Amino acid sequence: MPGSGRTPAGIPDYRGPSGVARRHTPMTFQAFTRDPLARRRYWARSHLGWRLIAGAAPNAGHRAVAGLQHAGLVDTVITQNVDGLHGAAGSPSVIELHGRLDEVTCLDCGNLTSREELHRRLREANPEFVARVAAVNPDGDVDLPDGQVEAFRPVDCGICGTGMLKPDVVFFGETVPPQRVARCFAAVEQARALLVLGSSLTVMSGRRFVIRAAKRGIPVAIVNQGPTRGDGHATVCVDAPLGAVLPQLAARVGAGAPLGV
Ligand SMILES: [Zn+2]
């Protein structure tokens, strides 16, 4: 269950090593859907930050996980990352628990479209929109003065014409689709072991799988820099950066029974 890493992949950590380090209060589903200004601010910042997200490439950790899968040592990857980089690294089986930033959903008609297409439409709707990128947030949005936010023109769904668009990621205050959670629980329960990679397990969204594994007597191993909220359930805890551990692990392990991750 890999978390995310800032430097190697070029995408800021979704939650930060301590689970609290972030510049902005995270967007909630309620604010996004009910507050037009909050929604405008989200899209304006996100529009500016998208190129950085879109340009990110898998790091050695992503490649190591994919290598473990191809070697038959890891079955399913459950990730809380929304950057799609496990798939880009060649991971054959990934459940993206919190969705993907490169897809956009219409809250009215339910159609899923690509973020690249939305990016093109937002550029056309905001031809003179220029702002300096000061910092990038975990969701790919950036610091932006209010005046520039007010000048930004979001767009509606290009298919039904009027629906509200939302990145296909799970916001705070929103629940993960139940079928997706069920797939994760099934993968965990079929596993001989659960390996947690780079997550502080701060939110129950990911921690519940550790709790389920522990209840079923499935060994849990955690590799993370710093303590996690799952440590009490773990058989093994390794306090180390993933970038140092994962490539070595992938290089050193031989054949064996599949691990569920
Ligand atoms: Zn629509």
What does the model show?
Helix content is 35%, strand content 13%. The chain has 9 helices and 8 strands. Strand 3 and strand 4 form a beta hairpin. Helix 3 packs parallel to helix 9. It is elongated, with a radius of gyration of 19 Å. The site of zinc ion has 8 residues, from loops. Zinc ion (ZN) binds next to loops.
Summarize the structure in short.
The chain has helices at residues 29-34, 36-54, 60-70, 85-88, 115-125, 146-151, 178-189, 204-215, 242-252, and strands at residues 77-79, 94-96, 99-106, 112-114, 165-169, 194-197, 220-224, 236-239. It has 261 residues and is an alpha/beta fold.
Please report the total strand number as a whole number. 8
Distinct small-molecule ligands in the complex: zinc ion
Order of helices and strands: HHHEHEEEHHEHEHEEH
How far apart the termini lie comes to 5 Å
Topology:
Elements: H1 29-34, H2 36-54, H3 60-70, E1 77-79, H4 85-88, E2 94-96, E3 99-106, E4 112-114, H5 115-125, H6 146-151, E5 165-169, H7 178-189, E6 194-197, H8 204-215, E7 220-224, E8 236-239, H9 242-252
Parallel strand pairs: 1-2, 6-7, 7-8
Antiparallel strand pairs: 3-4, 3-5
Helix pairs in contact: 3-9
Zinc ion (ZN) binds next to loops.
